[in-house]
Amino acid sequence: LLQAEHAWHVDKKRVLIVTTEMSSLKMAQRFYSAHFRIAYDPLRKAQLDMFTEQKMRDGVMELMKSDGLYIIGGDFDFRFETMEAAIHESNPDIVFVDGAYLLRTTGDGRTEKAANTFDELKRVAKRNKVPVIATTQFNREVSANNAASMSIEKLALTDAAGWNADLAFGIVITDDMRRDKRMIIKPMKFREGFGQDVECWWD
């Protein structure tokens, strides 16, 4: 969401956000939190002070008049055909898919379905000439408190995610970092060039 907000607000790109994990409303709340720089925890608990709440309400009204930001979730059926229809309708410059492993596809068993999902995401990107940023999970071999245990080969269910990726990043949040609301975005694969760790504050 931080990347999506930056692409839309700073770089003035048309952005499509597809979430398989939560409703459009929940995703929009998180987007507002990032966009208005409002801490998410009091926002989701409806514990904003009057000034912050009014700031957000005014900002949301302005956002509703804006163009180029589309969020689909909730009753979205997670089929690729529906996602491509949304791409054709919104004509985005970039697509963000939250929870790619839950997109519906064919295959015998979870592993084959997951492989087909990432193969199809690559095809969608090429067919529509639009970059696709997708989130997925690590398998149980990765320890949350050990950044060294994280690698592209340890993505859950399939190697196809890593094979198809041009760039791949892992998010590291140790117990100590969680208390400080920090995380590290760690590069795992660069098809060209090199990457560096980026530390950010996620609340």
- Report the helical percentage: 40-55%
Report the biggest beta sheet as strand number plus sense, adding barrel if it closes: 4 strands, parallel
Average pLDDT score: 86
CA radius of gyration: 18 Å
Neighbour order of strands in the largest sheet: 2-1-3-4
| Number of H/I helices | 8
Total beta-strand segments: 7
Order of helices and strands: HEHHHEHEHEHEHEE
Percent range for β-strand residues: 15-25%
Low-confidence residue ranges: none
Structure write-up:
The chain is α/β, with parallel strands linked by helices. It is built from eight helices and seven strands, in the order αβαααβαβαβαβαββ. The chain has helices at about 1-10, 25-35, 40-45, 50-65, 80-90, 110-130, 160-165, 175-180, and strands at about 15-20, 70, 95-100, 130-135, 165-170, 180-190, 200. α5 (about 80-90) packs parallel to α6. The longest helix has 20 residues, at about 110-130. The radius of gyration is 18 Å and the shape is globular.
Give a brief rundown of this model.
This protein is α/β, with parallel strands linked by helices and 203 residues long. It has helices spanning 2-10, 24-36, 40-44, 50-65, 80-90, 109-128, 160-164, 175-180, and strands at 15-19, 69-72, 94-98, 132-134, 167-172, 182-190, 198-201. The model has no long low-confidence stretch (mean pLDDT 86).
